[in-house]
Amino acid sequence: MNTTTSRPPADIIVCVHNSYDDVKLCLESTLPTMSSGDRLIIVDDGSGAETKKLCETIASENQDLVHLMRREQGSGFCKAANAGLRQSDKGTVILLNSDTIVVGDWIAKLQNCLNANARIGIAGPLSNAGGWQSIPYMPGPNASPNLIKADSDTLVSIDAFCSEMAERFSYPVVEQVNGFCLAIKRDVIEAIGLFDEKRFPQGYGEESDYNLRAQEAGFLCAVAVDCFVYHAKTKSYTSEQRLQLSANGLAQLHSLHGVQRIKDAVHGTQQNPVLVEIRKIAMTVFEERKWMVTP
User: Which domains does the chain have, with CATH numbers?
Assistant: First the structure.
């Protein structure tokens, strides 16, 4: 794998709707990892006063790096993400959930994955809660996250472990890259456009559709297995709402791409041999190094 640290600039888009504590952790972890040519595009999608003020303060204090967009009426993730994508102009665009924590050279690692093959157009990292990119265990029936320690020292150590472990693997090509942290080449956006905000207004299923549309256009999707991004999975919806939204999104995916195509994409990513092997290695290491939260 390419471990070069010099890199071209990137746009990082973070869509925000309340969740003050998570947003604060996300933005404050992201800014120190950025270079002078990067831009953090914050799309405040109708947040209340406290989170609105937080975004305004961060933008004011980091005017050279931050572009703040305010949507007074919350319109849902897809419209907010598309608004951010329309503002982006870099060769690499990263959609980052507002309940994540990033460390180190995560941007360079995602770009290295994107540039490992001319056909790779979408990439994402490993995570404690990243769908089939989750380590040390795959998601449970309710997509529950792996409960790990989220302090800076632990996350830096996990990221370093991923870098060391990844030296023995090539970037796995998959059919589904989870949307919590989605790195996209500009070529993909120019080829297939933005997210389908009409069919996926609340964001459930939109990244699966985008992955498949990119593949239909000739691009590959891959996992940067040397990169780890923490994902808290905030409780924006009740479990009942989440199940309903997931069911609605799946119905749209079936309508657009066919039931068997979706089943094959999910199964192929779940059982990708590189990801299966990485989870086996991670199970032992996470336990030995006491990175999991004790129940």
Answer: 10-288 (3.90.550.10)
